């Protein structure tokens, strides 16, 4: 099983104001900020990682918050929705909480026999809280306001919107080991049996829809999970053999990565479990201090002056 894709590793999106992003995900949604670092390509910008206690793969939502980013919009060729698993009976709590904090939400609906509550973050990123058909047993991060009875367990699924799902579906089935579970209209659900959770990808076929714009309030890329570097490089060979351009292995400090754009236009990443977020700070201290990639450490003082001051909970 370990040589297979282990479902979702993380999803990375683009935000605007850093403080607003932090307040929403840590206070309203009750996620843990497990790492506060910077964008490898733009060290004057934060890179926030939110997840459970240890930042377990399959729970990690990350953001590049650019203060003056223009708004993006969803469309084809991108990941358009993120789904979090929540306990049965918790959706009323969340609907009431979203009303209290003036979070934009829609009425609950059913999809593939599961109840979900659609909502948007302050930048317009589209998310769903989903009660899975099978109870999600992962231990959640909890706060005084969001207890274990309501807290998110990690990712349930991600939605990709495409003009034609066939080329993307072939990547999922032929390389990643997913299989088609069922179809509802123009929505196709693919699953992997390699993991119990965070293993669902929904493909929505929308041939007449315009391409999306990746900017504020949209998803930048979707990362799939592999066990270690050895498995990572095995997948590199498979993807290159498919004729797709894929990057060399990149050290992201907390995991090793490969990137490629699948035929439908979505940027995919493969990311390893190792070494994890506790490699440079204790689990009890995760997210408290600004951690910089080694190449930027000599510039720490200059970088700290540029980054917005973050008032933490």
Structure description:
With 313 residues, this protein is α+β, with helices and mostly antiparallel strands. It has one domain: 2,3-Dihydroxybiphenyl 1,2-Dioxygenase, domain 1 (Roll), CATH 3.10.180. 16% of the residues lie in helices and 35% in strands. The protein has five helices and 16 strands. The strands form two sheets. An eight-stranded mixed β-sheet has the order 2-3-4-1-13-16-15-14. An eight-stranded mixed β-sheet has the order 6-7-8-5-9-12-11-10, with helices on one face. The longest helix has 13 residues, at 229-241. It is globular.
Strand residue percentage: 25-35%
What do we call the CATH topology?
2,3-Dihydroxybiphenyl 1,2-Dioxygenase, domain 1
Overall outline: globular
What is the arithmetic mean of pLDDT?
A: 97
User: How many angstroms separate the termini?
Assistant: 39 Å
Please tell me the CATH architecture by its name.
Answer: Roll
Present the secondary structure layout:
Elements: E1 8-15, H1 18-28, E2 32-39, E3 42-51, E4 60-65, E5 78-85, H2 91-100, E6 109-111, E7 114-120, E8 126-131, E9 154-162, H3 166-175, E10 179-184, E11 187-191, E12 200-205, E13 219-226, H4 229-241, E14 250-251, E15 255-261, E16 267-275, H5 300-306
Parallel strand pairs: 1-4, 5-8, 9-12, 13-16
Antiparallel strand pairs: 1-13, 2-3, 3-4, 5-9, 6-7, 7-8, 10-11, 11-12, 14-15, 15-16
